UniProtKB/TrEMBL annotation:
<feature type="transmembrane region" description="Helical">
    <location>
        <begin position="283"/>
        <end position="302"/>
    </location>
</feature>
<dbReference type="Pfam" id="PF07690">
    <property type="entry name" value="MFS_1"/>
</dbReference>
<feature type="transmembrane region" description="Helical">
    <location>
        <begin position="308"/>
        <end position="331"/>
    </location>
</feature>
<dbReference type="InterPro" id="IPR020846">
    <property type="entry name" value="MFS_dom"/>
</dbReference>
<protein>
    <submittedName>
        <fullName>MFS transporter</fullName>
    </submittedName>
</protein>
<feature type="transmembrane region" description="Helical">
    <location>
        <begin position="217"/>
        <end position="243"/>
    </location>
</feature>
<feature type="transmembrane region" description="Helical">
    <location>
        <begin position="59"/>
        <end position="79"/>
    </location>
</feature>
<dbReference type="InterPro" id="IPR050189">
    <property type="entry name" value="MFS_Efflux_Transporters"/>
</dbReference>
<feature type="transmembrane region" description="Helical">
    <location>
        <begin position="343"/>
        <end position="364"/>
    </location>
</feature>
<feature type="transmembrane region" description="Helical">
    <location>
        <begin position="255"/>
        <end position="276"/>
    </location>
</feature>
<feature type="transmembrane region" description="Helical">
    <location>
        <begin position="370"/>
        <end position="388"/>
    </location>
</feature>
<keyword id="KW-0812">Transmembrane</keyword>
<feature type="transmembrane region" description="Helical">
    <location>
        <begin position="86"/>
        <end position="106"/>
    </location>
</feature>
<keyword id="KW-0472">Membrane</keyword>
<dbReference type="InterPro" id="IPR036259">
    <property type="entry name" value="MFS_trans_sf"/>
</dbReference>
<feature type="transmembrane region" description="Helical">
    <location>
        <begin position="173"/>
        <end position="196"/>
    </location>
</feature>
<keyword id="KW-1003">Cell membrane</keyword>
Length: 393
């Protein structure tokens, strides 16, 4: 298992300050992942304001996802032995600057540049944060620390977009970006006060990345991330038309329902995190089968308002367990190489977001929203077969 940093002492106790530091990392994760997906609910207003189509405005989501997928595996190599605390602070500061640039962008090309910078922040912060959170607690608390750290990502995936959309609707889309920059400043202050120095235990070498991918257990975890996140995003990107066209839910009800989805996702993170700490294989299989069943049933049982709402809540509960379960698998698979293994997994997570949304759009345009739900179900079911073929470390 991971060798926890022994600044916490030999005792099996953790000071409140250390737990607050883990929470600060979680809020940092929330802020960078929210930054990635913030434009989703603002595409129409941004497109109108800057004179571009909604399809072109969608580059604001695709660009940071692709950049993050490249940054995640490369940044741990480039930073060498730099103190990880300083790197995290620099990455959050970059996210703040990028969102200020988005707020002030006079045209769409400048806005895309700001989104490129956001991608660097996302990939770097997430790839480091997942491994560093566990260094601040003894081994027995690692599953709990991982759950808290990834609770921020889960909350961002499902709460960040509705919150940003609400702020943009009540004020202006630029204010949504500025508000996120303000949250980033608060995270910087918290990390300065709470996070201890985190020197690199060993610099990550470029060769460590393909070495980890040759590890069959790590490779299976990365593949599971791609299948689960890609399948989810292919369908979830179009959750608004799905709820309206399949379930007959009014447009104004979509935002509040997404908040309920998010609350269910947070619950799912903690429930699955507790299971993953003991039986990680069971946790991933349970989550993947649940997602496959929900997405496959949605066109059939989600054809009413009540059916659609019920399935949406269960969908949130199931997806909430994805980040923490696959990351726990990765940490168990590579106890002596957490940074390169986590970087590979983070790269796949962000690539799956970008490609899942892109492929989902093609399926919706060429076939139907029902087809994209069944596609997501098939990818989720395939995850179970992948996990069953590999024994966890």
């Amino acid at each position: 298992m991971i060798t926890a940093e022994r600044a916490v002492g030999a005792e099996d106790r953790v000071s409140p300050k250390r737990w607050f530091a883990v929470v600060a990392v979680a809020v940092g994760t929330f802020s960078v992942v929210t930054a990635e997906q913030l434009p989703v609910g603002l595409l129409t207003s941004i497109g109108h304001a800057l004179g571009v189509s909604e399809g072109t405005a969608g580059l604001m989501v695709t660009v940071p996802g692709l950049v993050a997928s490249a940054t995640a595996p490369l940044l741990p190599v480039l930073i060498g032995r730099l103190d990880r605390r300083l790197v995290l602070l620099a990455l959050i500061t970059l996210m703040v600057a990028a969102n200020v640039l988005s707020f002030a962008a006079p045209n769409f090309p400048v806005l895309v540049v700001s989104r490129f910078l956001v991608g660097i922040s996302i990939g770097g912060f997430w790839s480091l944060a997942a491994g560093l959170a566990v260094r601040m607690v003894p081994e027995r608390y690692v599953p709990r620390a991982t759950t808290i750290a990834f609770g921020g990502a889960t909350a961002a995936n499902v709460l960040g977009v509705p919150a940003g959309t609400l702020i943009g609707g009540l004020t202006d889309w630029r204010i949504a970006f500025l508000s996120l920059a303000g949250l980033g400043l608060a995270v910087v202050a918290a990390l300065v006060l709470l996070l201890p120095p985190l020197p690199a235990t060993e610099p990550v070498r470029l060769r460590a990345l393909p070495e980890q991918f040759r590890n069959p257990v790590v490779r299976t975890g990365v593949l599971a991330t791609g299948l689960l996140v890609g399948g989810h995003m292919a369908a979830f990107t179009f959750i608004s038309p799905i709820l309206q066209n399949v379930s007959g839910i009014g447009e104004k009800a979509v935002g509040p329902l997404l908040l309920a989805f998010g609350a269910a996702g947070i619950v799912g993170t903690f429930v699955t995190g507790a299971l993953a700490g003991r039986r990680v294989r069971t946790a991933i299989i349970t989550v993947s089968l649940a997602l496959a069943a929900i997405l496959a049933l949605f066109p059939l049982a989600g054809g009413t308002v009540y059916g659609g709402v019920a399935l949406l809540i269960v969908w949130g509960l199931a997806f909430g367990g994805v980040p923490v379960s696959v990351q726990t698998w990765i940490l168990k698979a590579a106890p002596g190489a957490t940074e390169p293994a986590t970087a590979l997994n983070t790269s796949m997570f962000n690539l799956a977001i970008a490609l899942g949304a892109l492929s989902g759009g093609v399926i919706v345009d060429q076939v139907s929203t029902t087809a994209v739900l069944w596609t997501g179900a098939a990818l989720s079911a395939l995850t179970s077969l992948t996990i069953l073929r590999t024994r966890p470390a």
